[in-house]
Design a protein that fits this description.
The protein is of the alpha+beta class and 190 residues long. The strands form 3 sheets. Strands 1, 2, 3, 4, 8, 9 and 10 form a 7-stranded mixed sheet that branches. Strands 5-11 form a two-stranded antiparallel ribbon. Strands 6-7 form a two-stranded antiparallel sheet. α3 packs parallel to α4. The longest helix has 26 residues. The termini are far apart.
């Protein structure tokens, strides 16, 4: 009698898990969206087509206004990343595919032109860093001192965070006062 109840409970548990797995797979089974045509380049990891923004998945390029240092001088690495992406998409007819959107509503895509993975090429050329994918390409770019790896740079996510904090402080004189005090005393500086 006890073994029969264990068997019945096991079958019921398995059936419940199977139903949950089926439900989860249906929730994740979004149709793939394919975009091709004439893209506009917003920055080194964002494209636009027909009013919709597409974010290159797995990479993070310097922000358009971001500056890096190379050979002791500042250079416009964000603008250079934008130009590199523009060159890649204009010299070929890319196709971008994706299923999910980021928190800003941009479709996360992988773009290819023929046999060229544009996302990977941006990282390999040193015009973007790995952001959840393309770690091998980032290693290669770093070893070759390609693009941003030829000097000093701030990771784009860190740059955005600092820009956001600075923008928030502009309207808050108390926060600015505390920032100045922290700098004077040396708190929070590397």
């Amino acid at each position: 009698m006890r073994s029969g109840r264990l068997f019945r409970d096991g079958v019921a548990s398995f059936a419940l898990l199977a139903i949950l797995a089926l439900f989860a797979s249906k929730m994740n089974n979004r149709p793939e969206i394919i975009q091709n045509g004439s893209f506009s380049v917003v920055d080194g990891d964002t494209l636009s087509i027909n009013g919709e923004r597409l974010r290159l998945k797995g990479i993070d390029a310097p922000e358009y206004r971001q500056r890096c240092r190379r050979d002791g001088a500042d250079w416009a690495c964000g603008e250079e990343a934008r130009r590199a992406l523009a060159t890649m998409i204009k010299s070929r007819a890319p196709e971008c595919r994706g299923r999910e959107k980021d928190r800003y509503g941009r479709l996360l895509v992988t773009c290819v032109a023929g046999d060229l993975d544009i996302n990977a090429a941006m990282v390999r050329s040193g015009m973007a860093v790995s952001y959840g994918a393309y770690a091998g390409e980032e290693r290669s770019a770093r070893q070759a001192k390609a693009g941003i790896w030829a000097g000093d740079f701030e990771r784009p996510s860190d740059y955005r965070r600092e820009e956001h904090m600075a923008h928030d402080r502009e309207g808050d004189p108390i926060a600015g006062l505390f920032d100045n005090l922290r700098q004077l005393v040396g708190w929070g500086t590397p």
